[in-house]
Design goal:
The protein is mainly beta and 677 residues long. It contains five helices and 36 strands. It is found in: Cell outer membrane.
Length: 677
Amino acid sequence: MVVRFGWKKELVCVIVLAHGATATAETIRNGDPETTDDQKIVVLGQSVTALGNTILGAESIQEQLSFSSRDMFRSVPDVTIGGGGRNAQRIYLNGIEGSNLNISVDGARSGRNLHQHRGGFGGIDPDLLQRVEIDSTTGVADGPGGLGGSIRMTTMNAREMLQRYGHGDSFGARLKTGYSSVDEGKHGDVSLYGMASEHFGVLAHVAADNRGDYETGSGRSAIGSGGQDRDYLLKVSMLDFNDQDLHLGLSRSQNAGLYARGSNGSDMGYLPENPTGPSSRVQQRTEEDRLTLEHRWNSDHQALDLRTNLYRTENRLSYPGSSISDIFTREWGMAIRNDSHYALAGFPSRLTVGADWFEETAHTNALDMQDAMGWPDLRGQKVEYTSKNLGVFVENQIELGSLTTTVGLRLDDFSSNYGPIQVSGNDISPAFRFDYRFDNDFSAFASYSKAARASGVIPVGFLGRLNHTTQAQGGNLDPEKSRQHELGVRYTPERLPLTVQLKTFQTRIDDTIQTVGRGSAPLGRGDIFNGDRLEVSGWQLSAQWDAGRYSSQLGLNILDVEYGGKDPGAVRRLTAPTGDTLVWDNRWQATDTLSFGYKLELVADLKDVPQGEPQRDGYHIHSVRAHWSPVQDLELALAIDNMFDRRYANHTSLFSQSTGVLDEPGRDVRLSLAYNF
């Protein structure tokens, strides 16, 4: 609901509520009740599902022999990265595109799209990651803008690298090289890390990927899919100093290549051998720079577990060697929260109070009105657009015997400008979750949440086509809103190393802020508007088995996507039907130094497509992998993806009459060699 009274009154109400609850916690905390902390989950192996979240640990990520983010998420059925070439890949969570998710690295949000979808989440070197948490629902403490959920990534620090590779040493280095056959890709990275003292550590990491055009399962070359990736990280950490941790990080993720721009093939990642229209391939480079500061103060005091994140990001799309001006965004942001553990009438409880804020300024050039149809199209004066969000939240969790209730409230004040059009307001978003344990084996859960924002899904480059004649369809723009709920059961027998979960879920997103496709023409009356209702509903079954040296996990995701009450196909920067998907991943630790893995991806036919688009064939992909450490500190890995060289296209890939649908890579033999000093 949109709140009708003043922002200051709302803020006072939330602060008073939070202060009162904190006072209660302080009064009764001396009883030293049993406390819970659902954030302290250590994941070392396969991906797991905990408290509704999917968590990937460092070992799980690296066992996939991941050279890109696409490889990293292949074992998670509700996350899809499709689109063929690296520059065209989009990430989806339960069919909702990444522009509508809160995706962060070390607390720093990914910015909005710069051109088409480029400049949003472009990926990160998987070797950098300690943990990835995927949450398909929106919690009040998950930050702003996550209409369809969140993906939170945390990078390694020096101590974690030493614990994993250093054998108790104070300093270490890791060298890794790799090769992928499908695109003749070469990969290499270097990590240097050490603890200068008991509390002070430094990690430096550099990674490079060079790829050619990949071949599909039919042997066809995906022209324009080759490119280069570069990843850099410098992370300085102060650890366990007076119950506090402090991390200062400086990182860059870069992608460059000769990619299609404009018209046919521009966001398909592919340009036909005989293209029609004005599209052509030009040198393009995207860069995401992140400066992050993370602080945690986790004292013995039950009322103090304080976490603070500050960040600055710059997202830039440039065209080296051309007259096209850079398109870029700069964002400052922060988040602070405190968890207090206490007992309420003898029941273990946790109170979370916090706030977050960001301000993003987008920069591009206006349309050259003297030559509106010329190319390059944006050659007018420099213009900028600002999006802001300030949120405060309070959440309380209490264990009432077999029932655990989590109740939260979030208040957002937001504003965004679209040329002459302003969108601003405030919104209260509640979130509820109930977990009930019937006995030691069976439990059930239910949740409901809402979210709101005003930042839209319009790429920054498209904003240059706004001018004084632009008017919103219907006279004004409303903020974007979402509503989510899920209901499920979980089976975790005490006598078996098994977890089975079945849930049904629905996400509804209303009033996404969009523009019509006008190419290089200016946006006029009614060309910016609130989109139709998006509804994604489905079922998800997950099972995990871990018995000695063998582990297996099975995930089944069944989705139904409707946009405006119709089958949408892929709607740019909003949604795509990912197709009913089953992923079965297995791992066998044959010896202490040798392990094998097998993965099956099974995707059903996609028959519900918009008029004029072809139905999509389903596919099944088989992949195998092996890891071997013949001597201490030396690691050899082999992975074969799409082992039978299947020709297939991801259902999220865009379709056009000129380019059709781009097939995904065929058989890919990947090798890696790593040595730890």
